Amino acid sequence: MKQRDRLVLELMARGGMRVGEVLGLTPADIHGQKLVIQNPKSGKENEYIFIPQKIAERLTEYVRDEVIGLNKRIFPTSYETVVVPEQHYFVLGDHRNSSSDSRGVL
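and the corresponding structure tokens:
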């Protein structure tokens, strides 16, 4: 498992963080074992999460190794443009057997 993915999962599982909170973290939010959550869902200005020491160390090391700027997201997300070639189809569907969203003969 990639270090990035492991950290995301550990912050959610062991830190009790929501995925949106993890994805919004910046290096400026890290204060040892205490993480600052900016604009949390509670409506408060900030909230604080305390994480285990080993996770805090791995997170700090990851930020250092990846050379992430102080106010840049630690776990940025990006979406690439997908170009569907002519004479081809791009279909999204639900994989559950009980779904009938896009099944059928074209």
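(Above: one complete record from the training split.) Residues 3-66 form one domain.
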